[in-house]
C-alpha cells in the first residue's frame, strides 16, 4: 500500500526537496503541501493523508498549534515533526500535543523514508538518540507531575518495566529480547499501559515516563 504524505513548511525549497525525496520511494506518495499551520489543518481534512510532515516554526498558525488541532480532530492522525533544532522546546510541546515523532531536517533520504514508514505503521519515532535527549532535557527542566506519579500506581510491575523500556526508545522486538518474552506479550503490555494511562501512543508514553520520573536524563 502507498503511504500518502502531506508536507507542511513555509519554505518552498524545503517542501520541494522533501517531495522529490519521498516521491522517489516506491511506497510513498506526496499528496499535498501546505505553507503554514492553518492551511495544513484544511489540507488534512480534505486529503486525509497517512502522515503529516510538520514544520514547527511558521508564520500565522505554527506547527505546534496545527498539530494540536489536527490530533484533537482525529485521534488517529499521525504527525511527524520536522525541525532544524535538536533541542527545541516547541518540539517537546508538539510531542505532548500528540505528534507521533520528531526528525531533524538534515536527515538523509533513507532516514526520512524510514521515519514516514515507522509513523505510518502506528509506531512512534523514538529511536534516534536526539529524540530521547530532547524529551529527557525538557522533562529535567520541569518538576515531576503529581498526577503522572499517581497514575503509575495503576500499572503492574511488569507494565511499569515495559513503560520504562519504551521511554528508552526500545522497539517491541528489543523489549521482548530484553525481558525474554514473546513479542506478542510485549504488544499486549504496551496496549494495556496506553489504556490504563489514557495515552494515545508510544511517544506520549515516553513523555509520561519522563514526567513521572520513571526515567531520568541519562537513565
From TrEMBL:
What does the UniProt keyword field contain?
DNA-binding, Phosphoprotein, Transcription, Transcription regulation
The UniProt entry, under InterPro entries, shows: CheY-like_superfamily (IPR011006), NreC/VraR/RcsB-like_REC (IPR058245), Sig_transdc_resp-reg_C-effctor (IPR016032), Sig_transdc_resp-reg_receiver (IPR001789), Tscrpt_reg_LuxR_C (IPR000792), WalR-like (IPR039420)
Domain (Response regulatory) spans 4-120
4-aspartylphosphate modification sites are 55
**Which top-level group of life is the source organism from?**
Bacteria
Pfam families referenced in this protein's UniProt entry, alphabetically: GerE, Response_reg
Q: Which residues form the HTH luxR-type domain?
A: 148-213
Does the keyword ATP-binding feature in the UniProt annotation? no
For this protein, the record's PANTHER family field holds: TRANSCRIPTIONAL REGULATORY PROTEIN NARL-RELATED (PTHR43214:SF24), TWO-COMPONENT RESPONSE REGULATOR (PTHR43214)
This protein is called Response regulator
Q: Which organism is it from?
A: Streptomyces fildesensis
Q: What is the lineage of its organism?
A: Bacteria, Bacillati, Actinomycetota, Actinomycetes, Kitasatosporales
